[in-house]
Task: structure prediction
Amino acid sequence: MEEKKILVTCSSMPPFEEYTDEIKELWKTVWLTNSGAKHRELERKLCDYTGVRYVSLFVNGHQALENIIAAYKLKGEVITTPFTFVSTTHAIARNGLKPVFCDINRENYTIDVSKIEALITKDTSAIVPVHVYGNLCDDEKIEEIAAKHGLKVIYDAAHAFGVFRGGRSVLNWGDASMCSFHATKAFHSIEGGAAFMHSAEIKEALEAMKNFGMTSQETTDYIAGNAKMNEFQAAMGLCSLRHFKDEVSKRKKNAERYYANLSGIEGIKLSVPLSDVESNYAYMPVLFDGYSMTRDEIAGKLAEHNIYARKYFFPPTNEFSCYRDIASKQEGTPVAKHISENILTLPLYASLAADDVDRICGIITNR
Ligand SMILES: *Cc1c(COP(=O)(O)O)cnc(C)c1O
Result:
């Protein structure tokens, strides 16, 4: 008998009636997009949840990041890491800016802060670090470097919704942060995303920029596209938010089961949250470095059992053909390359059964 198919993630759905109740009003108001009631309610609730002053919702996370970068009117070069989803690098390049690839650290795979300053030139305008897997960047050091050189800091926090350090949402860090609410993320609105920021001016710019740059019916101040979140997405976001605490606690249970099964094994490295961090348990990245099987062998072996782990993030974005020219003129990023070739993201989601976690671990450890 074929074993049940397990993918790297599975979206959590609210109870069907909860969603239909949430969208019912839309048949009365017939206000389907353009900052409707659901949209406004979700923005308000996200401000409350994160403690960030301003939130601007977007149709997806990528558009949020691309528009944040545009709103800051950056010029020249932007320092970022290649160990991420290609969206991060595209958001920089599509703004006409040059991505400058900084290597990552071996501890938690975020930007190696000891390598940032050597990459700063007279053309550098910002740093776009990534809280990859919800692992946190060294914000203090990044802030210090940014302040010293007058750079903006815009976090790709696509993986960091619901991550708190010292009781404070990490979306408060830097000048702004982008979150993704894609169906594959821990918190989702089907497709969706948001910009989190402290600046009223940037918030105002983003509100216009996601709506063709229009500042009123008869004035257009920015050359911009259409990136608005609609009411059906916002309604799903409201449902997801109601269940988010439960979502995280279910993910945590599964993550802890992985830690129990896989920790202390030679050649296997896990990303375990630090003691002052409240994690969202968005991903289960496992580094196979000096283990009896390679990452690719393990991925293959799991696939034989109908289990599809993902090589997040492989290859690093500076190896994609569209960035090869830029990257070839820059110093390499050997750590990003090494991690990218040896890391595997295992299935982790709220409805994943504990038995399945044990089975996945058994396949990896040959038990
Ligand atoms: C998902 C993701 C994005 C893009 O978000 P979308 O909502 O899918 O547009 C950007 N960066 C990272 C690191 C991501 O994982």
Notes: The pocket of pyridoxal-5'-phosphate is lined by residues 60-62, 84-85, 87-88, 130, 156, 158-159, 180, 182, 193 (CB under 6 Å). The longest strand covers residues 54-58. Residues 231-262 form the longest helix (32 residues).
